[in-house]
Amino acid sequence: TAEEIFNNKKFSDDFKKNENYKVFDITFLNKIYLVNVYKTQKTFSNNKIDIIVTLNNVTEDRKIEETKRDFFAHASHELKSPLTAILGYSELVSLNMVEKEEYLEIIQRIYNQANHMSLLVEDMSILSRLETLTEREEFHEIVNLNKVLKETLYTLEPFINEKNIYINLIEEQIEYKCIELDINKLFKNLIENAIKYSNDNGSIEIRLYQDNEYVVFEVKDEGIGIEPENLEKVFQRFYRVDKGRLEPGTGLGLAIVKHTVIKYDGKIDIKSEINKGTTIKIKLKV
Question: What is the rounded CA–CA span in Å between residue 199 and residue 224?
């Protein structure tokens, strides 16, 4: 009620001051209100008005602002490490402090760090685009999902071979109205994540099929698993399942997956057991 709102300590404190105008936030029933207080000497309907107060519900605006602050703070942190490495290696070269036989190794390190920055900026751009969508787009392109999946597996083949992982692929032929790049990123991020957290000589099961009004994509690994309390956190930006392992990546992969699923009116189901593996099932609305 209005009486409860005006009993807020900020109101009583500000009314005692001699300022003509004041603006501040208050929290009431888990909502944030922007309050503007004006002192005036006007008369309305024979009643003298001393103070005018306006309240504007800015809960969503404040949440967006907080999200942006967190995003840029994390992004700055993630970009700082590779940038520091590039500057350090470049300085060594410019000061002739590198032996001839070390040049190729230094150049490769600079390239790897620059490539990591490039991937991070690309993922930040994709995530930003997905987060600003307010309604579902109309898709006119019909995409062969099996073709996209096979191309994704081909690009990840070096990583699969490096850990000697067996891929068990079970698929139905599916044509789907979508943007091919969205699905490519979704497939890549989920499979790449499964590879990263799988043990050497393990196996990954990948299923692609249609279930009534949904296209279903499921990735099941036999890796390190996720603690129950962290299952929901894995879809947050820059969250890593096992920070100690320092697995390469931008930390935005599953956040992109989450927002892609939202874009296609889909659902996410995740199950995991420590040291037994993780299964992520994605359903996209047909």
Answer: 8
The pTM score is 0.65
CB 222 within 8 A of CB 277: yes
Determine how many CB atoms are found less than 10 A away from the CB of residue 193: 22
State whether residue 104 is helix, strand or coil. helix
DSSP string, 250-272: -S-HHHHHHHHHHHTT-EEEEEE
CA distance 187 to 149: 7
Q: Return d(Cα 73, Cα 107) in angstroms, integer.
A: 29
Identify the pLDDT of residue 43.
Answer: 67
- Burial of 199 by CB count in 10 Å (0-12 exposed, 13-18 middle, 19+ buried)? middle
Q: How far apart are CA 46 and CA 49, in angstroms?
A: 9
Cβ atoms of residues 78 and 250 within 8 Å: yes
Q: Which letter, b or e, does each residue of 107-126 get, where b requires 16 or more Cβ atoms within 10 Å of its Cβ?
A: eeebeebeebbeebeebbeb
The DSSP symbol for 160 reads H
The amino acid at 232: E
Q: What band does 130 get if pLDDT is binned at 50, 70 and 90?
A: confident
Better-predicted residue by pLDDT, 98 or 45: 98
- Only one residue has tokens 């005006």, namely 6
How far is 52 from 43, CA to CA, in rounded Å? Answer: 12
User: Which of 190, 214, 198, 199 lies closest to 270, judged by CA?
Assistant: 190
DSSP β-bridge partners for residue 224: none
Distance CA 41, CA 38 (A): 10
Helices (H), the chain: 2-6, 9-15, 59-94, 103-131, 145-155, 157-162, 180-196, 253-263
Give the integer Cα–Cα distance in Å for 226 and 246.
Answer: 15
What's the start-to-end Cα distance of the chain, in Å?
45
